[in-house]
Each structure stands twice: as C-alpha cells, then as structure tokens.
Design a protein that fits this description.
This protein has helices at about 10-40, 45-75, 85-115, 115-130, 135-150, 190-195, 205-210, 225-265, 300-305, 320-325, and strands spanning about 265-270, 270, 295, 310-315. By secondary structure, the chain is mainly α. The strands form 2 sheets. It has a two-stranded antiparallel ribbon with strand order 1-2. It starts with 7 loop residues before the first helix and ends with a helix.
C-alpha cells in the first residue's frame, strides 16, 4: 500500500506499540491491586475478587497480544496492493479492536457495581479475623502487619477490638482505657510501646501479668482499616478507567489514520488515476521500479496476486553501455 504522507508506517507502529503497552500496564496494575485487596480477605472470599478481576486480566492480555500481532500485520500490508481483500481485512481488524475496547469498559463497569460487594466481604472477613486473632497465627500476622503499615486500628474504629470474644470485659470505672493490640499504637508514641515490650528492669513475667495494659485515645490510631481498603479499591478503579480512556483515545486515532490511508490509496502523486484504462477497458496499474530494471514479465499468476512482479536487474559493471540503456 502507498503511504499517503512521509513515515506513515512509523506513526501506525507507534500507536500500536502504545496500545500494547497500555495492555501490559493494565495487567501489572491489576496484579498489584489484586494482591493488595486479597490481603484483607479470607481464602474463600479471594475467589470472589478473582471473579471480578478475571475480565480485566483478559482485557489487558487482549490489548497486548492483539496490537503486538497487528504490528506484523501492518508490515506485510505495506508491501501489498490495496485490494478489496486488504480493505476487508482492515475493516474487520478495526471492528474487533472496537469490540475489545467496549469489553474493557464493561469490565470497569462490573468492578464499579461490585465495590459494595467487595467492601462487605472485606468487613466480614476482618471482623472474623479479630475473633480469630489469637487462635489463628495467619490472622494475627495479617492484623499486626495491616495495622502497623497502614496506621489504622480495628475494622471501622478501635472499638471493634473491645467486641472480640477473647477480649476481657472492661470495668465501668476504667471507661477511659482502650483495649487493643499494641500494633494500634501510634509510631510517635514511645510510652505506648513501653507498656507492651519488655525493657530494662522489666521481666517477661511482669508483662504477662499485665497482658492488656490500659491505652488512651491519644496513644493509638483512631481510624479503622476498612476505609484504607475502600481507598485502595477506588484508586484501582480510577487508574483502570484512566487506562481505558487512553486506549479508547489511541484507538480513535488508529481508526482515523487507517481510514485516511485507505482513502488515499487511489491517489498517486496528486493525480487521480481512477479512470486509467487500456484499449480493452481494463484498468491500468502503475508499478514503479528502480532505474536498473531491464524488463518486467507479467504472467497470469502475477495479475491475480497482490504483489508486484519481480524485475530482472542488470549489473552495469559487467555489461556494455548499450545493454544498460536497453
């Protein structure tokens, strides 16, 4: 096919590579947030998250694979004539690309509709983890790491720990004290950790006798961990929507550029040659060859092919001037 302007093939290739990189980015971001979201959930509820994200994985993989393969397709099309079969191929390719982008929006919409479901699943799972804090080492490690890294306490607030089955009931006179794990302490509160970690002049026995020393509101993080989960889900949704908008934008550019290239295939050097025919009424085809081509033999197979026939080249260093001028 003819290039309607200089380096048209380079622009097409750059757009295709950009679409493929968007697909790879979607896969990477989805894998990161998939691991982050499932860290709040139990093993059974992790399957629910995978069900929501499976379509996103497919969307990113299709973007990466389809547009990388499209680079090879366009390289072959540049060497062929613009026949009706080539036009049909490009139309089908554009249609399938639009279907992929539309499916990507469907994936974003499914996640948007499932935010409440994921939030309820995370809340149920975290409350269950509080009750199993000392009976399950996995949940204890999860809660300690979550509260320390995210600087939060409890599901929705620190009061969730007081409702745990294993937590001792608080006296009425000690209403100002807080019952919570030491990982709820603020990182800037040194006195908070001194109550829980044995230091100089402090034995492990004395620590066990005061397993739940009183904490104050000023020494712990007040915010719960569930809002952190909600922010992670919404951040992932916004990032995914941004990638989808970019993919749609570059696809529109590809569609416009492809249609422009197809429309300019019947125009050569500023002169319209649609009506050039021979004496019998058959359309003429103009084929450009280098100056050292001596002759071109066209057979019936060449007429049915999209590729131009091969020319017979001469080496002027081995032939006379008269033969080279032939």
């Amino acid at each position: 096919m003819q290039q309607p302007f200089r380096r048209a093939n380079i622009y097409i290739t750059l757009l295709l590579i950009t679409e493929a990189l968007i697909g790879v980015s979607i896969l990477a971001v989805t894998a990161y947030y998939h691991k982050l979201i499932t860290s709040y959930l139990s093993e059974i509820q992790c399957g629910l998250v995978y069900g929501y994200l499976f379509g996103v994985y497919m969307f990113g993989a299709q973007l990466a694979v389809i547009f990388l393969c499209s680079i090879l397709m366009w390289r072959r099309l540049w060497k062929r004539r613009c026949t009706p079969n080539v036009r049909l191929l490009l139309d089908l390719w554009l249609f399938y690309s639009c279907v992929i982008i539309a499916a990507g929006f469907g994936c974003v919409w499914i996640i948007y509709r499932g935010v409440d479901v994921l939030e309820n699943a995370a809340e149920t799972s975290l409350i269950e983890g509080i009750d199993m804090y000392y009976s399950s080492p996995e949940w204890k490690l999860l809660w300690d790491g979550l509260q320390w890294d995210k600087e939060c306490c409890g599901v929705r607030s620190y009061k969730d720990w007081a409702n745990a089955d294993w937590m001792p009931k608080r006296d009425v006179n000690c209403s100002s004290s807080i019952l919570a794990p030491y990982t709820c302490c603020k990182r800037s509160c040194e006195s908070c950790f001194n109550h829980f970690l044995p230091g100089a002049g402090q034995s492990v026995v004395s620590i066990r006798q005061h397993q739940y020393p009183p904490l104050t509101v000023d020494s712990i993080n007040m915010n719960g961990c569930l809002p952190v989960f909600d922010r992670a889900v919404w951040n992932y949704l916004y990032i995914l929507l941004g990638f989808w908008v970019l993919a749609l934008k570059f696809l529109i550019m590809l569609c416009c550029l492809t249609k422009y290239i197809l429309a300019r295939q019947n125009v050569g050097d500023g002169c319209y040659n649609n009506g050039l025919t021979d004496d019998d009424g058959y359309p003429l085809v103009v084929v450009k060859y280098p100056p050292n081509v001596r002759c071109v033999t066209i057979s019936e197979e060449d007429l049915a092919s999209d590729n131009a026939p091969e020319g017979k080249y001469c080496n002027c260093s081995e032939l006379d001037d008269d033969q080279c001028d032939y």
